[in-house]
Design a protein that fits this description.
binds zinc ion; 6-stranded parallel sheet; single chain; alpha/beta; 13 helices; 18 strands; TIM Barrel; 420 residues; 8-stranded mixed sheet
């Protein structure tokens, strides 16, 4: 321990800001049934963590004598869960930061999520991230996107009612009949510069193509300018038509499974999406209801589920499976919800399990979600060199996905951040 203190400081200083504040202990987890996220299973494994990173994962190994040892008692040990599409800040952003953030961040850790991607949130989220990095607050690793529009408002859209935009989504029923106005090139470039300056990690775009409209060309510009600033572009498309248009511009990740349009009827579209090799986030549950204790079907805004606009939600799982079988392997967990993380997990599992096996779900919430979040160099599997983001769960998630709801220990960057 005495010699590693200096090493740890040096390693932390050289690594990402993310790890610098993690007072990651050196530790060992023994007697673990390890699902490492790559599909491998060790029945009785030992994981050694040093300086916040995984040093080794091996079968039947002795724990080194000089580190804290956690006896997993035969429980399942797997990579920390990754939520690749979430909206975090709720209500007034300053009030959220001071009153709600700490508790909410802890809820992610308790549900097993060590990484959360925000697909648009105000800068107060970046402030919360800073507090986490400085050790003033506990929470998951946070990556955040800034919104960059692809077109101006559609004529008539000023009459749109207030509220969750998904309730009035133009890609759902009657598609736009005329071109949306273009956004001046300089305005797009400025928006991207501002996002970079504010400290965001990605650019989030929403594509709804209009006849003769500027959307694909602007998305190409965003992708290219974003690259210049080290900001990958993540793109919202919820219909098959818009997803096909999006992949043409080559964003880094697609934040939804298309659920409007049946990919089984559109083999060319299916092939085009898969051939693009772009990771995708599941978000199946946002398009189906969440049930409260009064047995009411609800949308993510807490209001009655809008069957008239989200009646196609059931198509999502089927399209997901078609994409998966056609070769889209980077298909990762995301919810696009704002329910408490464990409730969102219950909903998403309900949708995922209609078409994926428990074994596939393990990949979807670990390795694949890290790929969809564009962070698979550092997280998503238990492999030497990766960040020590680890959960211990009671039960066997290869047998029943409900075991993912039984997190007993969460470790982030080698630090135990939740212990039941
Ligand atoms: Zn979203």
């Amino acid at each position: 321990m005495q010699s590693s203190a200096t090493l740890r400081t040096v390693a932390a200083a050289g690594a990402l800001l993310l790890t610098s504040a993690a007072s990651g202990q050196d530790l060992a987890i023994t007697n673990a049934r390890v699902l490492d996220g790559t599909g491998a299973v060790l029945d009785r494994g030992t994981i050694v963590v040093r300086d916040g990173r995984i040093e080794s994962v091996s079968a039947n190994a002795q724990a080194p004598g000089n580190v804290r040892t956690i006896d997993a008692a035969g429980r399942t040990v797997m990579p920390g869960f990754v939520e690749a599409h979430r909206h975090i800040v709720d209500g007034d952003p300053n009030a959220w930061l001071e009153e709600t953030a700490a508790e909410q961040m802890q809820e992610f850790l308790e549900a097993g999520f060590t990484t959360v991607v925000s697909a648009i949130d105000p800068p107060q989220l970046l402030e919360a991230r800073q507090r986490i990095e400085q050790g003033a607050m506990q929470g998951p690793r946070i990556f955040a996107a800034a919104f960059v529009p692809l077109a101006g408002p559609m004529p008539g859209s000023e009459n749109q009612p207030e509220g969750d935009p998904a309730r009035f989504d133009a890609s759902r029923r009657e598609r736009p009949s005329q071109a949306a106005p273009a956004i001046p090139r300089e305005a797009t470039i400025t928006a991207i510069e501002n996002a970079a300056r504010a400290g965001y990690d990605y650019l989030k775009t929403v594509i709804i193509v209009t006849p003769g409209g500027p959307e694909v060309e602007t998305l190409k510009l965003v992708v290219e300018e974003g690259r210049r600033h080290g900001l990958p572009t993540i793109t919202h498309a919820v219909s098959v038509q818009d997803t096909v248009a999006a992949v043409e511009a080559g964003p880094a990740s697609l934040v939804h499974t298309p659920h409007i349009g049946h990919l089984g009827d559109q083999p060319d579209a299916l092939q085009k999406i898969v051939d693009a090799g772009i990771p995708m986030m599941s978000t199946l549950a946002v398009f189906i209801p969440h049930f409260d204790e009064d047995n009411e079907p609800l949308f993510r805004d807490g209001l009655p589920f809008p069957w008239e606009t989200l009646s196609s939600g059931g198509q999502g799982p089927v399209n997901a499976r078609l994409l998966w079988e056609a070769g889209l392997t980077s298909y990762g967990y995301g919810t696009d919800t704002s329910w408490p993380p464990k409730e969102s997990l219950i909903d998403e599992l309900r949708a995922l399990r209609t078409v994926f096996s428990p074994e596939d779900v393990v990949s979807i919430i670990t390795k694949n979600a890290a790929e969809a979040a564009l962070q698979s160099d550092e997280i998503g599997t238990l492999e030497p060199g990766k960040l020590a983001d680890i959960v211990i769960v009671d039960g066997d998630p290869l047998e029943a996905s409900s075991a993912l709801l039984n997190v007993v220990t969460t470790i982030k960057g080698g630090e135990v951040v939740f212990e039941q």
